[in-house]
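Record filed here:
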Amino acid sequence: MDLKTLEKEKVVLKGHFLLTSGLHSDTYFEKFRILENPKLLTELVSTVVKKLKGKSFDYVLGPVVGGIVVSYEFARQLKCKAAYLEKRDDKLGLFRETPITPNDRILLVDDVLTTGKSINQMIDAVKGFKGNIVSIAVLIDRSDNIGFEYPLFYGMKVEAKTYVPENCPLCEKKEILVRPGGKR
């Protein structure tokens, strides 16, 4: 998979974007274009699964909403179970009596990695129920090489500039700021 394919499929958007993290960027990754396209999702997940060669997992764990599809596809290819972290009363956790034990090997997954905030929240949630995280996987890594305490695997590493709002050259040029995505 290459960047041109993602651009053709309207996954990669160019402009002036307000990210969920509060940062501004000249590039936005519309994950739902991936989730709407089984062939694209399967290919990106397959790229990561090849990198996970030799590792085995009992569960793939991802966040609700978009992470459900990502988790399921990873679990399907890895031949294990999928489970989902949900937010209730501002607390992230397993709320459906998923029978994960401390011995179960967990792969945490997410769609696009920028600051690591979502993954760190998932790590904290899994530690809260004494889960055994083995690795982390994302479809697209657009981060600045964040260091997690677990190995990180990705389908694509893409450079995309981010700016704090007060130092954003796009704001200085008076480019229209767009807030895509679902989290508000």
About this structure: The mean pLDDT is 93. The domain at 3-172 is CATH 3.40.50.2020 (Rossmann fold).
